[in-house]
Specification:
globular; 1% strand; mainly alpha; 23 helices; two-stranded antiparallel ribbon
């Protein structure tokens, strides 16, 4: 163990100092500066702004709170229903196409928020394909089944967040104790009674965890309320509009309140997740619920129907990407198709610029997230932090719980003037502000994935390497990195997906010279260049698929090296 401690001392002193400076300076300090700004009234610390904000006479703020809570609660209920439908059907029923549906069921979680919203707009918006088709079928002058406002926001949220419930429920439903089902059957319990009395108590912890995560994600949602909300207020869009009106101090106060609520739910989620695991009961046999034919058919039909509903937006955005500009006005489908939209992406420097910006900023974000995330993970898991381990872990993971609007407002306040952390330059409006924002939101993903891998790292392997004469770098390259590499790759993949499609922070911080793909998609939509916007969406999806393939290839190569 002495060698392990020596290894730790040598390997992490400089990286830890670097990681500490980066996290304190570019993540925690902007949050502190935002809180301080919200309390300054004419240069004096005062709670008057909060008193005015929380006053019952401030109907705009309370409308935003109520709308956000109502949509979030409705999202939790409907996402829970859809996610449970998928999980029960795909674990308890066998049918043709099950493997394909199971593979693609998680597709929405990999879609950038703006791409998901735009695809829904093309299909179910007031001028979307489905409303136009129904309008023509029923010879109506009004849009039929065109979603907008609460309904549209709720549909997008359920589409994006039901995956949490589905993924949370898969393990407990796959590992149902057969003896429990047999005991229920022996007393005459049907499938519904067995599910309600036996299975539901077993999966309730997973449902609770998924519900809390869904609620947090819905409260932090910006894209769907921004594009579908109209004149309705929501907390995230209220902060955005306040910032646009130039009242940065009020936006800071609104952000602090939203941040407090988000962190409270984050702590509650962690506590629930840590205390909700059922104690093991020894060896068990996996079993399935006996479902009678008609309920089984209903479950399968419902799952296939939702799956088709899930694929429609993706297929539609692929079609629109090939539509000639101006050929889709009043028609149900575009009247003319072309490769011109994709040709412009590569041969028009102005059109390609957002793609280049997104790729460059994502690479920078990825590098810093890996450097900082791996270092912090090593300190948390293998460092001698003692009783400080839990507080440090919570502190570095707090940005994971905060909406992008909060991170962006904090960075605006700090870097809107020359600052030592910005090299005595104003970073707001520069290329560098967006990579900083992406890093502040994404590095906890690497921390979480790498920490999970480090938990399984046996310190005796380092001692064995030292005993065989391996130096520090040799042990790092041949022992540590191969064993935790899969965790680093998993975190890196999540960072790449998040930063390539990031919209929330981007819309608040971008400038003309550093606009990313997500902002350019919105710009194309506002100019009614639907084909160009869809082509950007498709290219963004291809970039993400490329990241997934690269991560899979790197993981397989790593596994091959370990086997050798």
């Amino acid at each position: 163990m002495a060698d392990l401690k020596s290894f730790l001392r040598i390997s992490i002193v400089i990286p830890v100092a670097f990681a500490a400076v980066v996290i304190l300076g570019y993540v925690l300090y902007p949050l502190f500066a935002m809180a301080r700004e919200s309390l300054l009234v004419h240069g004096v610390i005062s709670f008057d702004r909060y008193a005015e904000l929380l006053s019952w006479h401030n109907t705009g703020f309370w409308e935003a709170v109520l709308n956000s809570i109502v949509v979030s609660l409705a999202t939790v209920v409907l996402s829970g229903v859809v996610g449970t439908l998928f999980a029960v059907t795909l674990t308890q029923c066998d049918f043709v196409g099950k493997k394909a549906i199971a593979s693609l069921a998680v597709l929405p979680i990999g879609l950038p928020p703006l791409v998901g919203v735009i695809s829904f707009l093309f299909v179910f918006g007031e001028s979307g394909i489905i409303p136009r088709l129904l309008q023509q079928m029923f010879v109506s002058e009004e849009s039929i089944l065109g979603f907008d406002g609460f309904a549209a926001i709720l549909m997008v949220h359920v589409y994006s967040f039901y995956v949490y419930t589905y993924l949370f429920l898969l393990p407990p439903l796959r590992n149902i104790d057969a003896s429990l089902i047999e005991a229920a059957s022996s007393v005459g319990a049907g499938a519904w009674t067995a599910f309600r009395r036996v299975i539901l108590p077993e999966i309730r912890p997973a449902l609770t965890g998924a519900a809390l995560l869904t609620f947090m994600a819905s409260m932090a949602s910006f894209t769907a309320p921004f594009l579908f909300g109209g004149d309705k207020r929501f907390l995230t869009t209220l902060i955005y509009s306040t910032k646009l009106n130039g009242d940065i101090e009020l936006a800071a106060a609104q952000s602090v309140l939203l941040g407090i609520a988000s962190v409270m739910f984050f702590f509650f989620f962690r506590r629930t997740a840590s205390t909700s695991t059922r104690a093991a009961k020894g060896s068990t046999r996996d079993g399935k619920i006996t479902i009678t034919p008609w309920p089984r058919r209903i479950l399968i039909a419902g799952t296939i129907g939702v799956f088709v509903f899930e694929l429609l937006p993706i297929l539609t955005i692929l079609m629109i990407a090939f539509a000639k500009e101006g050929s889709w006005t009043w028609q149900i489908f575009p009247a003319s198709y072309t490769l011109e939209n994709f040709h412009k992406l590569f041969y028009d420097a102005h059109v390609f610029e957002p793609i280049l910006n997104s790729i460059m900023m994502s690479i920078l974000t990825l590098v810093f997230c890996i450097l900082v995330g791996v270092t912090v993970s090593y300190v948390i898991v293998r460092g001698s932090l003692g009783r400080w381990k839990a507080p440090v872990e919570l502190l570095v993971n707090i940005p994971f719980a905060l909406p992008g609007t909060i991170i962006a407002i904090g960075l605006l306040i700090v870097f809107n003037s020359s600052h030592i952390l910005g090299g005595f330059a104003v970073l707001v409006g520069s290329f560098w502000i967006l990579p900083i924002a992406y890093f502040a939101r994404s590095y906890p993903l690497v921390v979480r994935s790498t920490s999970a891998a480090l938990e399984t790292l046996d310190g005796s392997l380092l001692e064995a390497g030292a005993a065989l004469g391996a130096g520090f770098w040799s042990r790092l390259r041949k022992v540590v990195l191969p064993l935790i590499g899969s965790g680093i790759i998993s975190g890196a993949l999540l960072v790449s997906i998040a930063s390539l499609g990031e919209f929330v922070s981007s819309i608040l911080l971008y400038s003309l010279n550093n606009r990313p793909i997500a902002v350019e998609i919105l710009s194309q939509m506002r100019m009614y260049n639907f084909g160009g916007a869809a082509a950007y969406c498709v290219f963004l999806l291809l970039l993400i698929l490329g990241c997934v393939w690269g991560a899979s290839f790197a993981t397989s190569r790593l596994g091959h090296r370990q086997r050798k």
